[in-house]
Protein: Trehalose operon repressor
Amino acid sequence: MNNKYIKIYDELVGLIQEGNLKPNTKLPSENELRERYQTTRETIRKALHLLSEHGYIQKVQGKGSIILDVKKFDFPISGLVSFKELASKMGQRAKTTVENLDTITPSDYLKEQLKLKKAQKVWEVIRVRDLDGEKVILDKDYFNKKMIPTLTKEVCENSIYEYIEGDMGLAISFAKKEITVEEPTEEDHKYLHIKGYSNIVVVKNYVYLDDASLFQYTESRHRPDKFRFVDFARRK
Structure:
């Protein structure tokens, strides 16, 4: 059957997700899989290509296919990484949905976070990040409209940073980050799949251009089971 490789892919995904095939171990070889499923090498290779494309395995020359840890994704603390850049490592397992894009009059809290004057407006961008069919990140972005005068839904679905740096020609330089663990809000329950989880990991970002002007404040709210927040430190 032409779709036999899909069935093999689905079965292997199930074994990986259930932990029967362990992270950081080798997937059975092409020959072993061919014998197990009584099929052709071409069919097995199609299934393996799909596993690699969707972020379940990493092909390593001379070692075969290594099973990746699909339960948690490394989220760099010190770097300025867009979700699109993170998602590129996950293949088609990641999706962004724009729930709201609007120009708003900022609250006193947002004025304080963005160091705004009274008359200034901000963009509010609410996006939900989907991994493996589960809604696990709620991104609430606020941009100084004076610095970022135009935003579209298409830009927000793709990459705002790519638009700012590529189309607008601005240089994003650095960010201050704060990480806290909080109880889920009604908004978290509305947008995320968090049934059974009593905490949300909140990463607040204050992002600056290369002239040290603050243009973005973000609250990125993560379901705690899907991410490791990692950094590299060196003792001088």
Notes: The chain has eight helices and ten strands. Strands lie at 57-60, 64-67, 73-76, 94-104, 122-131, 134-144, 172-182, 200-209, 214-222, 227-230. Residues 163 and 188 are 27 Å apart (CA to CA). Helices lie at 4-17, 30-37, 41-53, 83-87, 108-114, 153-158, 160-167, 186-191.
